Amino acid sequence: MKWFAVLLGCAASAGAVPTFNKDIAPILYENCAACHRPGQVAPFSLLTYQDAARRAKLIASVTEKRYMPPWKAEPGPHFLNERRLSDDQIALIRDWAAQGAPEGDAADKPAAPSFPGGWEAGEPDKIFTMPSKFAVPADGPDQFRCFVIPMNLDHDVFVKAFEFRPGNRRVVHHAVLFMDMNGASRRLAGDSGSYACFAGPGFVPLGILGGWAPGSSPEVQHDGISIPVRKGTSLVLQLHYHPDGKPETDESSMGLTFGEPPNTALSLVIVNSRGINIAPGDSDYVVKTGVTLPQDVEVLGVTPHAHYLCKDMKVDARLPDGTVESLIRIKDWDFNWQGQYRYAEPVKLPKGTRVEMEYTYDNSANNPRNPANPPVRVRFGEQTTDEMGLAFLAVALTPGADARAFQQALILEYVDQFLAQGENIADIPPEIPPAQRTALVMAETLFDKDHDGKLDEDERKSLIDFLRSRMQ
Ligand code: HEC
Prior knowledge:
CATH class of the largest domain: Mainly Beta
Structural class: alpha+beta
CATH topology of the largest domain: Jelly Rolls
Helix content: 10-25%
Shape: globular
Bound molecules: heme C
Number of domains: 4
Radius of gyration: 25 Å
Strand content: 25-35%
Number of strands: 22
Largest sheet: 5 strands, antiparallel
């Protein structure tokens, strides 16, 4: 009799109809509730059986398409706080919906997730709040605003953890926290304490302290890593507001936890394409560029950035031995779900690795995200109607490395990258700080041997060789 019971048992569990209480609630609590509960960014809660059952088909369809939970990076490199359902979880939801979304036995139901108020990463050492409340109108376009928050530090600090707390979760769509060392942001803000800023903060930032999008967790640095912040630094908090149909106000804040100095130098590697010029109607415009790493590094995270026309992003590392590792791949870039991706384990890349970026843009009328209708020519720039293509890599150098030499060699890479993309001298964008701009114009003039107003490959190479020879 025994074998028969075993057989029956197997058959019963294989054919069992998934229920909300036993199978579905744990998935929703773990992967959806962070946003789908009262007062959060998602338009409805998914905590109760009734909430979920009446949308069972929709839930099955958005999870099958991997539209929910929002997580743009393709499988490959492992990131912290990845939000990705397994194929089995997706199948369970599909079967549950197909079989009428039964509730199941109350005894199977897990406890509802708890979201304690207060700071998730523990009480921070210092809390910084926006200088004043910001009014978000009921409708109209999204607002992008930079708020300047002086830190008033009397000594340098080392940031170990960053936690952002949106003041009003109904309208705050994402946040990036930049550092400003030289007062540029205060000049841009004037007396009001804030200014409109769409892409970057409008100055060359010293660094990025953190980012936030709905559902993100606090950012705690790996062991031995912390971000140095010098006395005199102002925080520049860039917020993206999405009007929700009624007038709202926001006063967001963030908590910083300080720690020991890092045991190694940190740096930001910027792969940036300025040579963007997309004809109206072009649905497959490809931008490629790259930067060669002058020393061994460990990549801690990557922040890809583009505007509304970009559809596909690929950032790869081509190692000196020819192997190619994916740093991030996004097949359906959505400006509204941009984020910082931090690796679960830092990615080691040897000196000589080329970080290659390949982004594809769709400037056709078929792109529903195209801000222009009919499409118009789109060039590089920081406005909503311009495009950008860049990736920031946060890297740690090896302990004891010469950070200054690394930085200088990188600047040379940037100059090379920039000149390779510039169509002619007049195209040097105004965003380049005046001193560097003048130097570049002069260098281009000097090295433009055939006087055609641009540097061809040989001319560029002699300029770079010259600069390199002067760097000792
Ligand atoms: C990081 C926040 C976040 C997480 C996590 C999240 N959602 Fe959402 N969800 C949203 C937001 C915001 C919207 C509304 C805007 C949109 O559709 O993009 C939404 C919309 C939806 C919709 C409506 C889609 C439509 O077409 O009307 C469904 C259904 C949904 N989510 C299900 C889920 C499920 C199931 C999970 C977990 C497996 C989940 N979501 C996880 C934020 C989130």
